[in-house]
Each structure stands twice: as C-alpha cells, then as structure tokens.
Design goal:
mainly alpha; Four Helix Bundle (Hemerythrin (Met), subunit A); two-stranded parallel ribbon; 2 strands
Length: about 120
C-alpha cells in the first residue's frame, strides 16, 4: 500500500468531530438539493444552499480555525461561496449557473479530501 501523502491536520477530539459533522452536513445538503431539484422546489433549493453559505459555520470549537492550514481554509471558503452562488443562481432561474457551481462545490470536496486528512492530537 502506498503512503498517504495528504497533509495531516491535527485536531483535538472536539475539533475532529466538528469537522466530520460539517463534511457530512455538506453531503446531506447536496443530496437534499438534488431531491428538491427533482421536485422542482426552487425555494427549498435556495434555502438549503444559503444555509451552507459563508458565515454559517461560525459556531466552531475553540482553536478550530487556527488548527487548519491556509489551503484548507481557502478550500472551505470557496466551498461556502459556491453554495451562496447556488442560491443566487436558483433564485434568478439560472439553472446552468446552478449546475456549474454545484459541480465546483463537489470538486472542492474532492480536492480537499485528496489534499488533507485529519489526525487527532
């Protein structure tokens, strides 16, 4: 088996669980956005996307932000901006823009998982 070349991000137990909870929440939101899109419920789509936008995860454990590498924080910021853009596009009826930003959000998820791994302090 090849060595794991991803950058280790050392978090305490509380920070680690918070990070995992955030990632699961993003996946659930993508799933729920897809369900709402299937039902053509744009108001739910916009609400779900806004709930994951910038500034919505500010209740993090002490020291969490400082424990994250700059690249990780940049990816997180890009992810949150993509979700805000999803909401704006869906409210404007711009389905093509919505689709592009949804893919960008998923690409950011993949890029982060390819670049970083969590380890507990």
């Amino acid at each position: 088996m090849d060595a794991d070349l991803r950058e280790a991000v050392a978090l305490n137990a509380k920070q680690h669980q918070f990070a995992l909870q955030q990632m699961r929440g993003l996946l659930v939101t993508i799933r729920n956005l897809d369900e709402a899109r299937t039902a053509d419920d744009r108001s739910i789509m916009a609400r779900l996307a806004r709930e994951q936008g910038p500034g919505t995860n500010s209740d993090h454990p002490q020291g969490f932000h400082d424990a994250l590498p700059n690249g990780f924080r940049a990816m997180s910021k890009q992810m949150r901006q993509s979700f805000a853009g999803l909401a704006t596009d869906i409210e404007a009826g711009n389905i093509g823009g919505y689709d592009a930003k949804r893919l960008r959000a998923l690409d950011t998820c993949i890029g982060c998982h390819e670049s970083y791994r969590f380890s507990e302090k």
